[in-house]
Fold each of these.
Amino acid sequence: MTLCERVWDELVGRYGADLRAVIRYHPMEYETHMRDDVRAQYTDSDVQAFVDEAIVNQLSLESKVDEVDLGPFHGLVRIFDDAWVFIWPDSLDEKSGFLVTLQREGSAVGIDAIEEIDTYLTEEIEPRIPPVQSV
């Protein structure tokens, strides 16, 4: 079972149909699990664009995180009418991580779910992420 499958299975167990998508991304590839209706809305190019944007945002945050005294960085949350989007990088300089979306419109899922997902990824998944090999 891949990490993406493991995260999807855990989160769909917690949030059911309110889980829209889980994407495990790397610089040159990604793996995704989506609700069927969500997947039907997006092409592979659209998904790649989401991944590219997540990586660019991640890299732009790298220099800013140390400028503010807010504690360690965990992730980026975006709020839309229809969805919560949570970007959780493995680390800011590795260009890899998870992008998780939850239904917002017509859902009881709130920001507390993002906190729960962050805790799950940090405590259960992060220890399973292989270290980056130095070249």
Amino acid sequence: MALDPETRRWLKDWAMKVGGTAYLLFVFAFMAGHPQPGSMDSLSRAVVMAIVPAIIATLAVLGVMLYLRKH
């Protein structure tokens, strides 16, 4: 599927916003679920564990946004 430059720019802009928000939400969620919330161990573990769910959530949200924009 070829995208025009305006749509690519729009997707890039929203990818940063949605991706950053999703990443922070997942980091906080994983920190809260740790046996010692607020510790450095919970932070370091959450920073690594939040990457994959944030990418998946971002791609899903951007897919829905792109579908709604085109229709």
Amino acid sequence: MATLSSQLLLLLFLFPLLVAAQRPPPAFKCTSKTTCKALVGYISPNTTPISKIQSLFQVKTLRSLLGVNNLSPTTPPNYTVLANSTVKIPFPCHCINGVGLSNHVPTYTIVKDDGLFHIANQVFGGLVDYKTIVSANKIKNPNLIIVGQKLWVPLPCSCDDVDGEKVVHYGHVVANGSSVDQIAAEFGISSESLMKVNNISDPKNLVAGQVLDVALKACNSSVNNTSRDAPLLVANGTYVYTANNCVMCKCDATNNFRLQCQPSGLKAINWATCPTMQCSGSNLSLGNSTMLSDCTRSTCAYAGYNKLNVLTTLAAEDTCADPGSNGNSNHAQKMIYQISWSLGAILLNLQLIMLHRFIVGGVKKLDVSFVGDKLPFHS
């Protein structure tokens, strides 16, 4: 009996590790050889202030956490996050041997009664597999960790373009009962794209607890590659502060997925004051625009920043284009509609003239006979 009890206890101890071993490793492909900003969706296990989540993931500023969750910039640190709510976490991503991992953040300090499975699945919401923590921290014995020991928790991420477009990669933990189609619809992407990015051949193979790489469409911007915040990737429905806190940029699909930036009105960081933000050769300041024609608007757009200045550029955009559509084809379609209406009006006038002459000519008799579905006229 004693032996049987010992075996049962051993099985109970190993069961979490066996379950974790069945879960596909959350490795995101990252071949870009660069760094970028990425996101993961953390499901809070209990009701907690948002400041505690900021501290757990070591997000530098509360504003950046508020921005990716589209919360008001004035949201206080004690804002309550309800249990089982999902909070988007921004972090720096770095490619290592073709795999994307968070750039040595966050770190976690081991407390009494901690275990690697508990840290991975309960503390960090299943966003990382315990074996990944073991590998990243070169832990020889997973069952031997010390109170006070600091561990790097490598979150999955990527910086790769998807189908030639700039995207923000978002780590999503699959919930029980979810499907590929449901997840794709939730984030406004195609099921085919979701399966391709995650190398899923059969949607039935989706596993609860699996971390999916969801490629969120990012707004197009005028930020050049030499800027200190390049590449500035902002996902739809989010905003960021950049240029030493002097500029606020937001992404909105209703604005044709064009990044909208304006002076933040906040106190500068690393600068005494925020520099001027006027477009050269124009009276437009950052965020201001003017119409050049019925369908063309010129905007003083954000182009990045360097050691001394905020960079701007004049950007023209087609205001007649639908969000996400090709502006030229949309404009051409509008021209076709206008021509069609004009031709219709001309034909209508011609018909009225002919009808007038017909009546004035004094038709003696109009006999209409129905034969099948034809309407022959006899005089």
